[in-house]
Amino acid sequence: MTNQNSIGASYATIGLFITCLVLLLGQQSARAQDVPVPQSVEQTGRPVPPPLLSGLHLAAITGVSEIPAVFAGLSWNALQLAVGVAASNEVPPGGTGPNSVYAGLITSVQYAVYNRAPVALGPEISWSTNLTGEAFRSNTLLPGFGFWFAPFNAPILLGCAWNVRLSFAQGKDATFAFMTPALRLAFGLF
After folding, report:
1. Is residue 162 a contact partner of residue 184, using CB atoms and an 8 Å limit?
2. What is the pTM of this model?
């Protein structure tokens, strides 16, 4: 029964990802066909929301997926780059046992295709590797889709992501997981 639930959750995640992708590509296609997009209060009768992510900003980010992580993130308009460290009791190749704590390096890039306050969302890709045990021998690639939300007027963003996980360990077969959800919290430093 657990395997059926996992497969169902994987299909639901893929369906959500494809739906968001179709909606975003449709929006981009309308812009490419020179369909007038209202940009002012005079054209719509209401103000167009500003971008959620704009300018150059530095942020402290914490996240939880399969393991907790702490990032320093740099945002330039709709492009975000984050570098961080993670701690886990998962045994990497060359590790000594399950009661030890291992550190890892994580880098992540996201581009907010939709970027209007209070929401930003778009594709992302992350890469992580172990720094302890036999460093750089176990690597994980996480392509996926990220979502950011600013619920109030403060430099705080709430986020989540749905990723596909590809793990590569030297001397072992690669592993694949359809659904790897993540939760995030970011605080803008400047």
Report:
1. no
2. 0.68
